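hey so i finaly got around to running the thing on DUF3106 domain-containing protein from Tahibacter soli. pasting the sequence first so u can double check i didnt mess up the copy paste, my clipboard has been acting weird all day
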Amino acid sequence: MTKRNRLLAAVLGVLVAGASNAQPPPPTPTEPIPFASLSALERSQLAEFKDVWDTLPPPRQDRLRRGAERWASMTPEQRAQAAERFRRWQSLPPEKREEIRQRFEHFRSLPPEQQRSIRESFRQFRSLPPDERERLRKQYEGMSPDERRAFLRGAGEQRRAMMKDRWLESVPENERAASSAMFDAFAPEDRRAFMRTLRDAQTPAERDAIRRELLALAPDARTQRLRQIAPPPRFPPPPPRE
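ok and heres what it spat out for the 3d tokens, dont ask me to read them lol
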């Protein structure tokens, strides 16, 4: 998988393939946003929501506020582009819009490290020339369901390899070979469980203690112990799509 294809897979695995100027969302707010706390310009732009503002959930309030803030900062050309993107969004079938919403919700639920990785991939993807971005999007959209799954699976394997390399950098040099061999000997589902266990640990010392404990065990006992301590996946594997 080429570098550009890896970028495409990292981005399209979460974001909508047709929204070239979309941005991964910030953390979802949990506290209500008082209408009076908005700027005068934001209140003016959101005046139609004033009477129902207090009934809106905080995430909806925040999206409206951020939309008004972005609109106020745009040039006329940018506003025209935004209006065109909204027109394209409105033209999508309801099931496609729902799929896009689910991808954004999935992004919000990812651990911070994965969100940062996806944001970085997205920035790199946007740095490509517009015609190259469009070519890659069309390439992805033209794939069959099986080809898309294989494409994203390859990106996932590449991402896990990068995560392994970053993890090994924190391991004492004289223990890296043994630690790498332990990781490679795990079955794919156990490798994912191992990385979840490390992410779940609160401190570097806890992560190192987990590694040392597993490294000291025989392979069968190591796998059994890992399955005992690993947190469950945040999302179950998706069912096959036809």
